[in-house]
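Quick one: co-fold with heme C.
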Amino acid sequence: MTPTSRTLTVAATALTIAAASLTAVAQQAPKPEQLIKWRQSAYQVVAWNTGRIKASLDGSYNKDEVVKAANTIVAIANTGLGALFPPGTEQGRGWHDTAVKPELFQDGRKVGEYAANFSREATELAKVAAVGDPAAVKDQYAKLTRTCKSCHDDFRAKD
Ligand code: HEC
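Sure, here it is.
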């Protein structure tokens, strides 16, 4: 290798590294629109699964269905949804305009409390679902959905 071609190779490698780290930066900071889509999607998947549990409670009870649904909710509840609400996403459009209230960005303590309640009741529901007693699932399901309502009352704008 001539000195010139070695210099070129080094320069090309440096450029590749620079490009790779730019990609990493881009991945660390998704656009507000993407974050809003993710959080709306996450809650839609939660609602799909609370709906499956309710259908089982209202109709003929299907333990497998309830276990799958409860495990999905607990996974989403424990995934750190707070990361999808950074400053800069108070307003904007995901799949549709965000319904978040500005208060969510001002009262971190309360949001944390609601998120912890959601996570705790979802975890408990997954445990109860694995046992399979419909009456116990019904009680725990009611406790879980109260955590949705309290957070929505304070932090999600009405339709
Ligand atoms: C810690 C607060 C919190 C908890 C707990 C919570 N939500 Fe939400 N939810 C929100 C916020 C905030 C939005 C608005 C998101 C946006 O539009 O950016 C939302 C939006 C939604 C949406 C609309 C999604 C869309 O298409 O825009 C559904 C459905 C939903 N939640 C269902 C639930 C259910 C069911 C539960 C409980 C099992 C739950 N949520 C628990 C805060 C919460």
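If it helps, The mean pLDDT is 91.
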